[in-house]
Amino acid sequence: MKRVWMLLIGAGLGWWALEPPLPVQAQDLAGDAHRGKSVYEQHCQRCHGAGGWGDGPDALGLKIPPANFHRFITQMKSDEQLFTTIEFGLALSPMHGWRGRLTDRQMEDAIAYVRVLAQRGR
Length: 122
Known about the structure:
Layout (H helix, E strand, L loop, with lengths): L1 H16 L15 H11 L1 H4 L23 H4 L3 H10 L15 H16 L3
Helix pairs in contact: 2-6, 5-6
């Protein structure tokens, strides 16, 4: 029984020792948030909304709602994961791929702007 408690305590200490990841700062990204704002407004805002809450004017007509960039799960995605989503889209969702319509730079800039939006409140 003592051994079980030691394992539980050790596991608990290990879990509490993990620190949550720090929020990503726009200056840490390869993209430029100022350029990304115009890319976002032109190509993303109609679904994801002006503030990134997934409440754009086209969102109501979608069976699968657009990503809300303020959700913890979305904020924890790496830039590479977001880039892949933008590049190739998401299967079985209205999020189509932007490869061929946006350059790599534009996609990186949009991600930088999304990171800024995610840190803003309503």
